[in-house]
Amino acid sequence: DADVTQTPRNRITKTGKRIMLECSQTKGHDRMYWYRQDPGLGLRLIYYSFDVKDINKGEISDGYSVSRQAQAKFSLSLESAIPNQTALYFCATSDFTGGGVTQYFGPGTRLLVL
Amino acid sequence: TQLLEQSPQFLSIQEGENLTVYCNSSSVFSSLQWYRQEPGEGPVLLVTVVTGGEVKKLKRLTFQFGDARKDSSLHITAAQPGDTGLYLCAGTGYSTLTFGKGTMLLVSP
After folding, report:
1. Nearest CB partner across the interface for B95, out of A97, A101, A102
2. How near does any CA of chain B get to the CA of A80, in Å?
3. What is the pLDDT of chain A when averaged over all its residues?
4. What is the chain A residue with the closest CA to B43?
């Protein structure tokens, strides 16, 4: 079984709709992250959380919100989807070693906003 | 803002060829990581380099961290079609990573 799972894997929605992307992990990590990936732009951090009471904005948080329901669950919401939020979204968890943060990614959610 | 520049952006080669991809920054990172992402999947960590000048080998892949800890290279010897994917470098901080935009490698049989 995968350590980091994301649902749905694919989603098509319309402009103005509210949608939620969900992430669950069985790695027991406290730290969880949401990224979006766009061609030519790489991975950009949306939000991250160090525990259920800690939420931090990343570099591109506008238009998004998150909820850390439990250590194992971290969901990303688009309150009112717009076409330029069409992207591949990844959830990740991390542990911290002497060499720094190592991240473990889910399989991604491909989102299309019409 | 710390930025990581990767080059080339795209590389298409034949099986058996050697290649090197680069990751450069104007900032110093405590460590640098390389990830590989295959189509339809999330990135997977290949290696972490920590010490300036460090060289790590993973089968046919050789990773080097620059002496000043601002740049890194990935060399693949005798590339195989299974090496096809997006190679991402990431500079590590205490809480987050800064990713480069990646090098897309296509190895044809």
Report:
1. A101
2. 26
3. 92
4. A105
Q: How many CB atoms lie within 10 A of CB A2?
A: 12
- C-alpha A72/C-alpha B91 separation (Å) is 26
Give chain A positions within 8 Å (CB) of B97: 45, 101, 103
Structure tokens at B66: 């620059």
Residues 6+ apart with CB under 8 A from B72: B22, B23, B32, B34, B49, B63, B64, B65, B66, B89
Q: How many CB pairs under 8 A join A and B?
A: 65
B75-109 residue pLDDT tens: 999 999 999 999 999 998 777 888 999 999 999 99
pLDDT digits (tens, 9 = 90+) for A4-36: 999 999 999 999 999 999 999 999 999 999 999
pLDDT exceeds cutoff 90 at B65: yes
Nearest-CA distance B81 → chain A (Å): 21
Q: d(Cα B19, Cα B61) in Å, to the nearest integer?
A: 10
The answer to whether B33 touches B97, Cβ cutoff 8 Å, is: yes
Side-chain half-sphere of B77: how many Cα atoms within 13 Å? 7
